[in-house]
Amino acid sequence: xxxxxxxxxxxxxxxxxxxxxxxxxxxxxxxxxxxxxxxxxxxxxxxxxxxxxxxxxxxxxxxxxxxxxxxxxxxxxxxxxxxxxxxxxxxxxxxxxxxxxxxxxxxxxxxxxxxxxxxxxxxxxxxxxxxxxxxxxxxxxxxxxxxxxxxxxxxxxxxxxxxxxxxxxxxxxxxxxxxxxxxxxxxxxxxxxxxxxxxxxxxxxxxxxxxxxxxxxxxxxxxxxxxxxxxxxxxxxxxxxxxxxxxxxxxxxxxxxxxxxxxxxxxxxxxxxxxxxxxxxxxxxxxxxxxxxxxxxxxxxxxxxxxxxxxxxxxxxxxxxxxxxxxxxxxxxxxxxxxxxxxx
Length: 344
What we know:
Oligomer: single chain
Order of helices and strands: EEHEEEHHEEHEHEEEEHEHEEEHEH
CATH architecture of the largest domain: Alpha-Beta Barrel
Largest sheet: 9 strands, mixed
Structural class: alpha+beta
Distance between the termini: 33 Å
Number of strands: 17
């Protein structure tokens, strides 16, 4: 998805809304040189009650958990980030969107280890974004097993959604696209199944859902967790276990999942068809349950939806983050203290 101010004229940067073209970052930013950023990807879906964030609180929680790993102090509370996400969609008048909150080390020192008083910047972007893998979401994706492997546990923290981690994903995706595939699947350091370049991985075998464990150095995906919860609702057994590469070739069904990819069926692996080469019944049932959350066919029993235009509601079932003008004022004041130019 290309970024354009025509799609969303405003973004949120260091405590206030800005015109898209007014958000700038210095070329000396530490994150530009060393990948010292943490981020999230959150979907806003169109629903009969208006736009709603999906699992906003969970994404914000993980943002703060990732920041804690790298000792990046955001300078805002989780409630302030949630409120800013809601404010951004309202300001842009969007009915659906992909939203990217990011916190990164700004321009300060250029040593590998940032100094304690180096600035941290926080921004939130919103943009329209359809199916991440295009029409593969319906027909099924053609994927390959990449020659690139995921880092071993104890090298890079796989549970942290950090910018630097995705250099590995770029190599996996580039190799896949050069080979004519929609996406690549990486093995872990021991040669067992890991995850896609930007998605978690599930297999269906004899009616059971199989997925690599999060201890395999993969991201503990929020959509992955959603699939496990929805599978339980459908009476499907889920097994988290180590899986060899050949499990892909003998699986009845394979699918990828993630905030961007949602639930995308896989129709072939290394040009070998998966099942009969079409999305299977388990994948279709899970997709129906997932997308049913947004048109009312699936009850939101867990309070995963946060309504963008809710007023005076607390987070929870059918809830939203209350609109509190003081949040923006406090955030704006903090941003001015960090950067006096914001008061201009």
